[in-house]
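JOB MANIFEST
job_type = single_chain_structure
chain_count = 1
residues = 211
[input]
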Amino acid sequence: MALLHKATLRPTKLDLLTTWLPGRPWFAGTPGAEVVSRGAYRFDDPAGEVGIETMLVGTADGPVHQVPLTYRAAPLDGADSWLVGTTEHSVLGRRWVYDGCGDPVYATALAHAILTGSGQAEEYFEVDGRREARASTVTIVVDGAADTPVPAVGAVRRVVDEDRTLIDTDTVELVVVRRPVAGADASAGVTLSGSWDGQSATVPLAYARTR
């Protein structure tokens, strides 16, 4: 379960991505063009310390890009190259926003979501002491999950940041599809797929394979 705050961000997540995305090797769009959201889904950090949100964004004349983001209350050691930017959250204060592919908390959450078949977290707002469900903007399905224990992910050993970004950990190999299109790759492992407004057919978003 992801418990969210009704808050404002300065700058917004889309403002940060408009600046950051053109510098990525997998970006296909017009640099400087406004980035708009097509949908988003979340995972849970069991420790409750790191926010984990995957955004599907694009420009008016370009494809949809998938950007996992993690939100932290302090900088992540050794992750400067994965920093998207900082923002001021009206409830939580300053947040450091990272590309999740370089954050070990995201790798653990993604592996768990895929290999257990649990998919995305349910989202709630807390309003006047009551929890109100937030409607999902992306429908997530998992294909191929086995009824077996999920190994501890361990350290992230390397990340290869390409159209299909590889996250190589001690026990699990993960792939994040940066520009989702139809056509699953069965050899890549268990598949997490999704659909959203404007994308009615389910397309692969990420893969996981144990060593």
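[summary]
Residues 20 and 207 are 25 Å apart (CA to CA).
The first helix runs from residue 13 to 20.
exit_status = 0
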